[in-house]
C-alpha cells in the first residue's frame, strides 16, 4: 500500500500573499493611471479651458475613494478660486480610480454647451470640449498599461 500525504498550507499561504501583493500593486498602478489622466487632461489638447484657471485648478483624483492628487497648484487669476474635491464616499469594494472636476459649470464646459444651451466658445488656444473624455479615448491603453506594468514588476 502506498500512502501519499500532501500539505497544502504553504501553497494556501503563498496564494494569500500573492493576492495581497497584486491588489497593492493594482492600487499603486491605478494611482499612476489617474494622475496621468488628470495631467493629460490639463495639458494635452484639447486641454481644460482656462479663463481664470479656476476650472483647471479644481481637478481631483481618487483611488478607492482616497484622495491621491489634485490640481490645486495650478495658477489661478484674480477672481478665480481652486476648489478641488478632497473627500469622496466609498461606493464599491472594487478597485475604482476617479477623476473629479469640481466646479458647478464643469459638465457644461466639458460638453461644449453653455448653461443657456448655446455652443460654448473656447478662447484659449489648445483648449476645448471633452478635455477628459478625449484622453480616455486616445490614451486608454496607456492608462491600463500603467496599472499592468506595476503589477508585472511586483515580487
Order of helices and strands: HEEEHH
Structure classification: mainly alpha
- Main pleated sheet: 3 strands, antiparallel
Strand order of the largest sheet: 2-1-3
What is the 3D shape?
elongated
pLDDT averaged residue by residue: 95
Beta percentage is: 5-15%
Explain this structure to me?
There is one protein chain. The chain has 155 residues and is mostly helical. The chain has one domain. The protein contains 3 helices and 3 strands; from the N terminus they run αβββαα. The protein has helices at residues 9-43, 106-111, 133-152, and strands at residues 59-63, 66-70, 97-101. Strands 2-1-3 form a 3-stranded antiparallel beta sheet, with helices on one face. Strand 1 (59-63) and strand 2 (66-70) form a beta hairpin. Helix 1 runs antiparallel to helix 3.
Summarize the topology.
Layout: H1 9-43, E1 59-63, E2 66-70, E3 97-101, H2 106-111, H3 133-152
Antiparallel strand pairs: 1-2, 1-3
Helix pairs in contact: 1-3
